[in-house]
Amino acid sequence: MTFWTESTLSPTRQFRFMVSTDGENWWWTSTCSKPSYELSTEEYKLINHKFKYPGVVTWNDVNITIVDTSVQTDKLIYDLEASGYYPEDPFEDGISKKGSYKALGVFNIKQLDGEGNTVEKWTLKNAFIKSVNFGQLDYTSDELVKLELVISYDYATIE
Description:
Largest sheet: 5 strands, antiparallel
Distance between the termini: 26 Å
Radius of gyration: 20 Å
């Protein structure tokens, strides 16, 4: 039976989501990919047959687009420095994994229903910002400046 004939079911919608770190909602987020993973496979040959076995799980990066509110650029640079990046002092220890995921905080992606209740909540474990694109400027456009972030993480859990 299809979902549109069932009055109690409501499909989830792409525009109902919230991204947050340490309880702070990122209301300036315009797009966010959900976590995904890939499972490697190994082939083993036995005489004239090949058998495939599951291997290692790799969680793919999450891509986020946010609208620049002029505060976001400063915060992203601050988070980079909090992770251990000091370009003026080359003798510092440098960026560490622990510093990187502490700078970002607990990263959550919530999918919401029509009333604003959480339908599903993804938590990215040991998440850190892998890359930032600070947008593009253009005299011929009146579009908003959008920042593109790539978030890496060890694994994700869902509630």
